[in-house]
Structures are given as C-alpha cells and as structure tokens.
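General statements about sequence and structure are easier to judge against a single worked case. No coordinates are needed to read the tokens, only the vocabulary itself. The sequence in question and its structure tokens are set out directly beneath this paragraph.
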Amino acid sequence: MKQNSKRYREILKNSFKEKKISGKEALELVKKNSTTKFDESIDVSLKINLKQSKGGDFSLRTVVNLPNGSGKKNKVAVLCEADKTDEAKKAGADVVGSDDLIETIASGKFNFTKLICTPAMMGKIGKHGKVLGPKGLMPNPKLGTVATDVTKAIKDIKTGLIEIRNDKDGNLASTIGRKSFSSEKLLENFNFFIESVKKEKPDTIKGVFIKDIFLTSTMGISYKIGAK
C-alpha cells in the first residue's frame, strides 16, 4: 500500500474537517503548507449557482484584473497589421506577426499561451477557430484579447488579467498568486476575485450565487471558506 510522504503527513496536521474559516486564516495556512522548493501557485475554487429562474443554465466567462497580478508568466503573441508590429514588440509581446503569424497558427505549432488580435485581423483568423478554440486561444473582445490598443492589452495580460469560466457543473477555479506573495497581497487578490465574481450574478438567478469557496496551493490541501 502506498504511503503518504512525511511532508504530506505534516500538512494534514493543519487540516480541518467540515470547518469553515476566514479567507485570511486560510491563506496563512495555505502559505504555511507551501513547503516545496518551487514557487507554488495559490488557487481559489468556487462552486457557483447556475440555475436561472428563466431560460437555461447560466454560463460565466469573463476576465478579472487582479490588483497584485497572478504571478503566472504568459507568453503573449500579437496578431496585427504590419505597421503595428513595432508597437507590439516595444510593449513586451513575445511573438509578433501579421500574415506570417497566421501561417504559423495554420500549421498548428504554437509557442505562446495568449493571443491578442487587432479587429482588422479578426477576419483572417476566424477560419482558424477550430484550431485555436479548443486550446483557449481564440481572441475574444470580452476577454481583452481583441484590441485596437495593443500596448494596453499586452500590459493587462502581463500584469494580472486572468480569464475565468465555469464548467457544466458550476465549478470555477483560478490562480490568485504565488506563495512568494505577501499574505496581504494574496488577501487583496482573493477578496477582489470573489467580489468580481459576485458582480457577474445575473438577475435571473435567485438566492445564493457562490455556494462554496476553497483555497489551496499546488501541492497543499484545501480549506473551505466561510460565507463571503
């Protein structure tokens, strides 16, 4: 029978069964449990209410601009007109191109994690949606990845803009920082994230919108948060 590691057994001593604690308490415990050598991500998981009083189930897909960033390093590609490539490069884009980048995308070989596209280039990229969509790379105006101001779009993604969406069961998860972040910055990101999700509640959903909240780290255990 496989046994848990000594590290994991030590972490379990800090666990609580069926007990809800505050976000601040949970973050302190999550950071305490982050004892690996790498900079673990601090993650929040939600269970949201999808049942609307009218129509089908609600689907949430939006972006949240964390005040202290997520700590995640994105490799950003920008698809734009030839006369905007210099601007994109100066703004910090990792990959920049026009028709040449479309050819790369068509080949299915991606070396980026986010794709920003100018409105003028959307007509050319549309037919590649079947390739980009499943990878979560299809540019979308609502997600800040279709933009005329490429400098701002690049800065937003590089400094903390994260995309969130729920699955069919109402589960939603996101990184809100790293263990190297101070407790104060993590708490600020956590509170901002929760409030941002609350604002997405449509009028057609009655009662509680966020049913459950959990906090954990990459290699840690989760803690259930009390009502927010």
Remarks:
- Residues 19-70+161-224 form a domain with the Ribulose 1,5 Bisphosphate Carboxylase/Oxygenase fold (CATH 3.30.190.20).
- The chain has a mean pLDDT of 89.
- The chain is about 30% helix and 20% strand.
